[in-house]
Q: What sequence folds into this?
């Protein structure tokens, strides 16, 4: 089956590697279609697209945008116009809100007796700050052993450093992607099953959902496939690649049926 990966991050958000390195890893893994979907920034897209195109790898300009409705209710945008002024102002505002969220997290951790500073965290940020950078700073100081431990011990709901996402609502994210000429997909829907609202999202203009994802079981894929058919949604595949030092699954690419590849190519890679 074709190997697709329309969900990847670089050091410009919470990934750990440069855009060209991500593309190189995808080429080695035999990925045939890919997208860079950094959080609230398209800073890596042009570098990655240039390298992918030189290698004959199908490349889709992408973005991932968080919402405030759920920590993991994220919308993936594909085939967006990365020079769209309205979208870029929206992303700029989102990044500013992220900086404020991280400052709030740091203050809460300090109040709980955790020895961490803004300087230590923001020194790790390339463009878009996130909880991952706080966890990395905690790891660098030896307070935790991994990014994952940092999240579990300090940064998830109910923990000392948790601050809710300040992001926009899903409807606004979908609207922004669409006005920039893009297609909006729900990221890792199996992770947020308790927040599902496909009737509302499709009314708002949702185009698809990420069906093939590392943590989606066979049963979850079956359920999501039925939802996609019911609402006329496209389906995609993504590994949520973050790089070797992220502590997450590091194998690029997800196998998907030929008909999925063909449809995505038709919609997202048309000239």
A:
């Amino acid at each position: 089956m074709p190997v697709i990966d329309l969900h990847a991050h670089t050091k410009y958000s919470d990934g750990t590697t440069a855009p060209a390195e991500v593309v190189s890893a995808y080429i080695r893994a035999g990925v045939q279609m890919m997208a860079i979907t950094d959080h609230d920034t398209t800073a890596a897209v042009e570098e990655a697209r240039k390298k992918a195109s030189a290698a004959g790898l199908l490349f889709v300009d992408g973005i991932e945008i968080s919402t405030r409705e759920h920590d993991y209710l994220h919308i993936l945008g594909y085939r967006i116009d990365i020079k769209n002024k309205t979208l870029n102002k929206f992303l700029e505002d989102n990044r500013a809100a992220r900086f404020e969220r991280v400052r709030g997290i740091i203050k809460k951790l300090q109040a709980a007796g955790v020895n961490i500073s803004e300087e230590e965290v923001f020194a790790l940020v390339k463009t878009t700050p996130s909880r991952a950078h706080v966890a990395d700073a905690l790891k660098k100081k030896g307070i935790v052993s991994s990014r994952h431990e940092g999240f579990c011990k300090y940064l998830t709901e109910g923990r000392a450093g948790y601050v809710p996402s300040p992001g926009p609502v899903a409807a606004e994210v979908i609207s922004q992607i669409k006005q920039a000429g893009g297609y909006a997909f729900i990221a890792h829907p199996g992770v947020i099953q308790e927040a599902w609202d496909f009737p509302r999202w499709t009314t708002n203009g949702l185009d698809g959902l990420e069906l093939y994802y590392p943590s989606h079981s066979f049963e979850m894929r079956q359920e999501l496939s039925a939802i996609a058919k019911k609402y006329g949604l496209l389906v995609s595949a993504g590994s949520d690649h973050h790089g070797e030092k992220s502590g997450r699954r590091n194998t690029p690419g997800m196998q998907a049926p030929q008909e999925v590849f063909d449809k995505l190519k038709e919609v997202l890679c048309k000239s």
Notes: The longest strand covers residues 58-66. The chain has a mean pLDDT of 96. The first helix runs from residue 19 to 28. The chain is about 40% helix and 15% strand.
